[in-house]
Amino acid sequence: MKKETAMVDFSQFDSLVTLTMHFNNEAICRSAIVETRWGVGEEQDVVCPYCGEHHCTSRKDGRFRCNKCKRNFSCKVGTIFEDSNLPLVKWFVAMYLISSHKKGISSCQLARDINVTQKTAWYMLQKVRSLYAQNTMEPFCGEVECDEVYIGGKEKWKHQSMRTPNTQGRSTKTKTPIFGMMERSSIANDKGEVEFMSYVRAMVVANTKGETLKPIIECCVEQGSTVFTDELNAYSGLANMGYGHRICNHGALQFVCDGAVYTNNIEGFWSHFRRMISGCYHDVSDEHLQSYIDEACFRWNTRKASETERFSNMFDLCIGHVRPNALFRLCGKAA
Question: Which of 211, 277, 278, 306 maximizes the CB count within 10 A of its CB?
Answer without folding.
Answer: 277
